[in-house]
């Protein structure tokens, strides 16, 4: 189990990549925001807590990937706030 | 009759794909014709969408994400992913962990960037 800063950064990038992959505006922005907020919230965790948070994030990454694939099977109308 | 049409279209698409593979033999990769200056200018535009410490200072290739732009490790990894999306490249994990300046990111991008779609299309046609 590695908690090295490099591994965490790589996890963070992977999660952001998945989050940015959503075509639906609301999902995309929610997941980007949630990823940023949760990593920032847990930035100062140490020891056991850090490992727990990282494992949770790894789980979330799997969920994110799966939902990304499923969500992108459907077509959503663009919202008015989006650039067409 | 329909079978003929299908066969003809299959043949043309097949030959098109064959042609594109022959185009690539030797090179293995499309050579990018996006200039480094373009990459640099677009990178700066992407970076400006983030909250930067010294927003008015000019960003040069030796600008450091953490020191000069006031980003922490989460911010600049965020920026790297934004750059990935802009240029449709993926930073290798080992590389991304080493990048400290804007210039390094731009170098990596210009090495790995694919040409824009319309150029790619033309080559395949």
Automatic annotation (TrEMBL), chain A:
One of its GO terms (biological process) is iron-sulfur cluster assembly. GO terms for cellular component: L-cysteine desulfurase complex; mitochondrion. CDD domains: Complex1_LYR_LYRM4 (cd20264). Pfam families: Complex1_LYR. Residues 6-62 form the Complex 1 LYR protein domain. Belongs to the complex I LYR family. This is Isd11 protein. It comes from Pichia kluyveri (Yeast).
From TrEMBL, chain B:
The keyword RNA-binding does not apply. It is found in: Mitochondrion. Belongs to the acyl carrier protein (ACP) family. Residues 37-113 form the Carrier domain. InterPro entries: ACP, ACP-like_sf, PP-bd_ACP. Gene3D superfamilies: ACP-like. It comes from the Eukaryota. Its main location: mitochondrion. Transmembrane segments: none annotated. Keywords: Electron transport, Fatty acid biosynthesis, Fatty acid metabolism, Lipid biosynthesis, Lipid metabolism, Mitochondrion, Phosphopantetheine, Phosphoprotein, Transit peptide, Transport. GO terms for molecular function: acyl binding; acyl carrier activity. Carrier of the growing fatty acid chain in fatty acid biosynthesis. It holds the Pfam family PP-binding. One of its GO terms (cellular component) is mitochondrion. This is Acyl carrier protein.
């Amino acid at each position: 189990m590695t908690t090295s800063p490099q591994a965490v950064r790589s996890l963070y990038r992977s999660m952001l990549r998945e989050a940015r992959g959503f075509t639906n505006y609301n999902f995309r922005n929610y997941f980007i925001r949630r990823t940023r907020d949760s990593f920032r919230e847990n930035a100062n965790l140490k020891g056991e807590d850090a490992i727990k948070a990282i494992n949770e994030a790894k789980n979330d990454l799997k969920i994110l990937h799966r939902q990304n694939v499923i969500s992108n099977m459907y077509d959503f109308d663009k919202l008015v706030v989006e650039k067409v | 009759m329909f079978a003929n049409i299908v066969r003809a279209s299959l043949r043309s698409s097949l030959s098109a794909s064959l042609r594109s593979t022959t185009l690539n033999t030797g090179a293995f990769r499309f050579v990018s014709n996006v200039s480094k200056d373009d990459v640099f200018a677009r990178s700066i535009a992407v970076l400006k969408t983030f909250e930067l410490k010294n927003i008015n200072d000019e960003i040069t290739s030796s600008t450091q994400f953490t020191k000069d732009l006031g980003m922490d490790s989460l911010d600049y990894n965020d920026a790297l992913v934004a750059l990935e999306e802009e240029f449709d490249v993926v930073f290798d994990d080992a590389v991304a962990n080493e990048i400290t300046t804007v210039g390094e990111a731009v170098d990596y991008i210009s090495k790995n960037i694919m040409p824009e779609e319309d150029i790619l299309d033309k080559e395949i046609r």
